Every structure is written in structure tokens, then in C-alpha cells.
Amino acid sequence: MKKALITGITGQDGAYLTELLLSKGYEVHGIKRRSSLFNTQRIDHMYEDPHEKNVRFKLHYGDLSDSTNIIRIIQEVQPDEIYNLGAMSHVQVSFEEPEYTAQVDGIGTLRILEAVRLLGMTEKTRIYQASTSELYGGVQGHAQSETTPFYPRSPYAVAKQYGFWITVNYREAYNMYACNGILFNHESPLRGETFVTRKITRAVARIGLGLQDKVYLGNLDAQRDWGHAKDYVEAMWLILQQDKAEDFVIATGVTTRIRDFVRMSFAEIGVELEFKGEGASETGVVVSSSNPEFPVEVGKEVVCVDPRYFRPTEVDLLLGDPTKAMTQLGWQPKYDLKALVNDMMIADIDLFRRDQVLAKSGHQILNYYE
Ligand code: NDP
Ligand code: GDR
């Protein structure tokens, strides 16, 4: 039985990757941070009672800022594969926590690689590094591939650039099987609530159910190449199953504006929007509403721009070229953007129907501010 160790197991990708590896018969170990509240909601459905025999899913307390902890866990688990998904992953927050982001997203990667080297496990253990399309940041005007030079535009992206190159360097210097997956944005019903897609689908579900009036967003002109996280964790696994360690771009090859993601999400509840104005004064107004289950008033302003969400340096357009992954790995995404939006909207409507029941019986419903 192969053993995998996943950092960032409590995050979106960690949860889907765990499901995938368990289904392939792996023993899966995860590193979770100690927090003052439970932070395992995304993986609780896979929990196995550690008192039982033949448990295939185990969690260890740890943190990518703590080298000794990382070394001890890797020594104890003796993984065949490590997926380094742990990170301070929010681009805007990285402008507020640049040093911590560098520690975890940059040096954290070095800690994993160096632990494997120091423990003499370079021939046994394969390493996947969660690299990102944010590395291309300022490279605009054409699709981005494995040969496109980097131009990071945030403390997050700069830290991830260190993670990318230290992975390449350890591969070349110590002959390690260490690879970067340069993944473009991928989303799902498990996406963190403050990333733009999930912020939108949650808000649209709440507006449709009468729990919220409007949503405040930042730059509506940005363009992203969005795929489904379920498809992208398949690619992570494939990257570690090749004869030779290499880096791969994982993307759909289609890019869409934030404004159009908003439109598509409202369309899922039968609401058509018109956008008026420009920049900070742009608004999204309802022009028709056809589903009686989600009665949103025509003429209502449901989207506003709040410059608080503008970034000091923005990445205007991301568009990946996944040709190498498709030809060499045989990777093919199953979801297109419409299917992704549909999946997220169904999940968020279901989630907030419970709040609607509570609201109707007089309970106070919390508001969400980010
Ligand atoms: P999430 O933000 O959902 O999950 C991040 C995970 O990292 C969480 O489990 C979090 O733990 C953990 N983590 C945060 N800080 C530390 C730390 N100091 N030590 C150990 N673990 C830590 O991210 P995603 O699942 O979306 O992304 C996974 C990885 O892929 C990240 O590295 C991200 O930067 C990268 N990536 C993501 C893309 C995307 O579109 N989703 C695209 C390209 C790259 P906790 O739950 O306790 O907060
Ligand atoms: P990103 O994702 O920065 O691409 O990083 P995010 O969803 O945060 O932003 C995408 C684009 O939407 C614009 N935007 C807003 N963003 C947020 N969060 N909130 C808003 O209200 C809002 N309004 C507009 C942003 O300006 C941006 O242009 C994600 C993360 O998962 C990274 O970890 C990963 O590496 C990259 O994707 C690929």
C-alpha cells in the first residue's frame, strides 16, 4: 500500500486529493494546524476512528513554519509521495502578511525538500509542489505555458516563485523526483469563502433566498482561467506517476471576466443582470427574474464595487495553455465553467436553504462581510 503525506489537507485541494488517494487504495497522512476551533470540516466525512484496525487516514499536528515538526512527521510516516499544498493562499491577504507568507509558502517548501534530503529519502519519496499561475502575474497578451517567464505581482506570488525554483533546484542538485504543478485557478463548493468565485456563489444564493441585499466586489474586469478542483487533483496525482520528474501547467485554456462569472451565477437562479457605470461606481442591476423560487425584484441593485478589494498590484489576465499536460499526462478536465458554476450554486443554495428556514422561524441569521 502506497503512503501519501499531504500538507494543507484541511484546505479545498487537500480534501479532494484525500478522497482521490483513498479511492486509489493509498494510506493518507495529513498535516493539520492546531487551531482554537475545529478546522477539519472539509475532511470530516473521511474520518476513521484511530482506535479501529487498518485505519488508512491519519492526521498529525504540524505547521510549515516548524522544521523539526516537518522532519519528525516525514520520518515517522515514511511517505512514498508528499503533496505540499499547505500555504497562506490568499493573494490580497499576502499584501498584509508578506513576511509570514514568505515563511510558509517559500521557506516552507524548502523545509519539506530539505527534510526528505536530510532523512536520506530522496530515492523513496516523490514530492509535488503546489505552484501557481500567479507566477505569471505581469505576463500579459498571450496564453501562459511551462516556457513562459515569470513576473510575480504579489508577496504571495514572489514566495511561490521561491517555492518553484527551490523545487527545480533540489530535483537537479540531488536527483530528487520533485515537480511543480503550475495550477491555474480552480474552484468548487469547497472553495474558501473569501475567494471571488465562492464569495459570488454564496452571495447569489443568499440574495435569491432573501437573506442578503447585495454583494460588494473589487475589480470586475480581471480575467481568470477557472477549472474544477476535482479535475485538478487528478493532475497532481498524474504528475507524480511519470517516469521522469517534470513541471506542468494545469488549466482549461478558457478565460472569463469576474463580471461574467457574476452573470453566470445569477443566471442559475433565473436572474438576468445589467452592469452600469465604470470602475468604483459600477453596479449590477436586475433586469429580469424568472424563477419564483428566487424572487429578486427587477431594478434592484445587487452588485456594487468596493475599492477596498482592489489590490496594490493586480493580475489582469490569466489564461493557461495545458497542451503539455493533455499530451504527456493524458489529463482532461471533466468540468467546463458552466458545469463548475452549476455545481457551486447547487451547493450554496442547499447550504443557505437551512438559514432560510431558521430566518422564517424568527432566528437571527449571521451576515458575512468578506
Ligand atoms: P486553501 O487555502 O483552501 O488551503 C490551504 C491549506 O494550507 C489549509 O489546509 C491551511 O490550513 C494550510 N495552511 C495554511 N498555513 C499553513 C501553515 N503555516 N502550515 C501548514 N499548513 C498551512 O488552498 P487550496 O486548497 O485552494 O490550494 C492548495 C495549494 O495550491 C495552496 O498552496 C495554494 O497556494 C495552491 N494553489 C491554489 C490554487 C487554487 O486556485 N485553488 C491555484 C494554484 C495554486 P487551515 O485549514 O488550518 O487554514
Ligand atoms: P486569485 O483568486 O487572486 O486569482 O488567487 P481570487 O479569487 O482571490 O481573485 C481573483 C480575481 O478576482 C478579483 N476580485 C476579487 N477577489 C476577491 N478575493 N474578492 C473580491 O471581492 C473580488 N472582486 C474582484 C481579484 O482582484 C482577482 O483579480 C487564487 C488563489 O487560490 C491562489 O492561492 C492561487 O495561486 C491563484 O488563485 C491561482
UniProtKB/TrEMBL annotation:
Which keywords does UniProt give here? Lyase, NADP
Q: What CDD domains would the database entry show? A: GDP_MD_SDR_e
Tell me the SUPFAM superfamilies matching this sequence. NAD(P)-binding Rossmann-fold domains
Report the sequence similarity comment from the record. Answer: Belongs to the NAD(P)-dependent epimerase/dehydratase family. GDP-mannose 4,6-dehydratase subfamily.
Q: Which GO terms describe its biological process?
A: 'de novo' GDP-L-fucose biosynthetic process
Catalytic reactions on record: GDP-alpha-D-mannose = GDP-4-dehydro-alpha-D-rhamnose + H2O
Which GO molecular function annotation, any one, does this entry have? Answer: NADP+ binding
* Cited Pfam families: GDP_Man_Dehyd
Q: What is this protein called?
A: GDP-mannose 4,6-dehydratase
What superkingdom does the record give? Bacteria
Its EC number(s):
4.2.1.47
List, alphabetically, the HAMAP family matched. GDP_Man_dehydratase (MF_00955)
Please explain the role this protein plays, according to its UniProt record. Catalyzes the conversion of GDP-D-mannose to GDP-4-dehydro-6-deoxy-D-mannose.
What this protein needs as a cofactor is: NADP(+)
Q: Which residues form the NAD(P)-binding domain?
A: 5-344
* InterPro entries named among the record's database cross-references: GDP_Man_deHydtase (IPR006368), NAD(P)-bd_dom (IPR016040), NAD(P)-bd_dom_sf (IPR036291)
